[in-house]
Amino acid sequence: MSGVAFGTGPVAGTAIPVGANPFSRRAVVGIVLIGSALFIALLWMIGTGNGMGTGNDGQAHAAGKGLNGYAAVADFLDRRGFAVRKVKNEGALAKKGLLVLTPPAFAEGEEIDRIVSARRYIGPTLVITPKWMAGPVDRQQKGARRGWVRIMGASGPNWQGFLDDVGVTLSPMGKAGAPARWHGMGLGGVLPEGKQVLSGQGERLVPLVEGQDGRILAAMLDDGGYYPELEDHALAPMKTEVEDDDLYPLVLVFEPDLLDNYGMARLENARLAEALVRAGGISPGDPVIFDMTLNGFGQSRNLLTLAFTPPFLAATLCLLLAATMIGWRAFLRFGPPASTERAIAFGKRALVSNSAGLVRRARRLHLLGGPYADRIRERLVRGLGLPRYLDTVHAEEAIDRALAARDPEAEPFSVLAARLKRARKAHDLLKAARELHALERKLIR
C-alpha cells in the first residue's frame, strides 16, 4: 500500500513579518475614500429622497414616462436652458420660479387651492388637469418598458374647492376620422386623440389655446392681476382694471395631451410648452419646478434633509472637512508605530543623567560641592574602619593622617574638601571632585 507523504517543511512564499502592515497605503486610502463617499451618498439619498427608487410608475407626473406622464416636457425645458427641478418636499413649493402642478383626478381641491393661493404672491403657476385613466401594460407584451401604460378610458377631474366657477367638459372634437386641431400662442397643431378632448369653461378664463371649434384647451385666469409678459400679445387681456399688481399669473391647461408624453411627440407641442412657460414671465435660466407632492411623493423635512439644505449645509460641509482632516492625520499615522525612546530611561545612568540635567537647567551647580565632599568623607570613614561617632573635624584629621602615612607628599583630604566646597564654576567643581575621587581610590583599594 502506498501513500502520499505530507512534508512538514515551510510553506512556499514570502512570510509576512509579525507586526507588519497587511495592507498597503494605497489600499487603505481607497477603502477609506470609497467607504466615506458611499456613506455620505447614503445620507444624502435618505435626506433628499433622491436615488431611493424611480418615480416612473406609470402615473401622470414629471417622472412618468408613459403616454400620460410629463417626463418629456420636463426634459425638453431642461434642454432649452430652464432650471428644471422635480420636488417632493412642500417647502420647495415656496421657491421663486414657475411651479407646474400635475394633480391626479382624485386630489383634494382645497389642497390645490391652498398651494395655488400661496403661489400667487411668489411666482407664476401652471396647472395641468388629468384626463387619462391608465394602467400598467402586460409584462408579456413584447418590447414593453418600465413605466409604459395602456389607456383604459378618460375622465375629467373633480376638484371641489379649487376654482369652483371653472367647469371642465370631456367630449369629442372634430368630425369622425378627421384630426382634432388646436391653435393659439401663434402656433397650431393636431391632438393625438380627438375622441376624448378635455376643455374648460368660465367667465374668468382668457383663452391661450383653443380647439378648432372654439373650445378652450388652455387659458389664463383673469383675476385682476397685471401680466406685462403678455402686453404685446394679441390676447393681452389683463391690462384692464388692475386690482392687484402683485399677483403672478395662473395658467390652466385643460387638455393634457398638449403637454404630456402623448402629445410631446410632435414638434409644435414642444414649441407650445415653451410658449406657455414664457407666458408666465419665465426665461431660460429661471427655475421651473415640477411638483410631485400631490402625486403621492411628498416627503416631510427631517434632520438629514436640513443637513443638506442651506443654511445648515455650511455646518455639514465644515463637519465633513473636519472628518477629512482627522482621516488624513490617521492615514499618516497608519501602520506599526516607530519605536521611540522613553522620556525617562531605565537604569542608574539615566537617573544620574536626568538629575544632572535638572541641576544644570536650574543653575545650582555650586550647591553640589558640599554634599559630594561629605559623601566621600563618609565612604572613607567606613573604608578605613574609623569610629562612626567622629565629628567632621576629627574624621578629616584621621583621614589626613592615614593619607600621610601612605603618601607624605599628597595633598590632605581636608584641603581638597574645602576647595570643593568653595568652588563655584563648573570647571573648578569638576577638577576638585576628580582630585577627591583619586584620593579615595588611593586610600581604599
From TrEMBL:
Record bears the keyword Membrane: yes
Transmembrane segment boundaries: 27-46, 312-332
Keywords for the protein's UniProt record, in alphabetical order: Membrane, Transmembrane, Transmembrane helix
- Give the domain of life: Bacteria
Protein's UniProt name: DUF4350 domain-containing protein
Q: Which organism is it from?
A: Novosphingobium mathurense
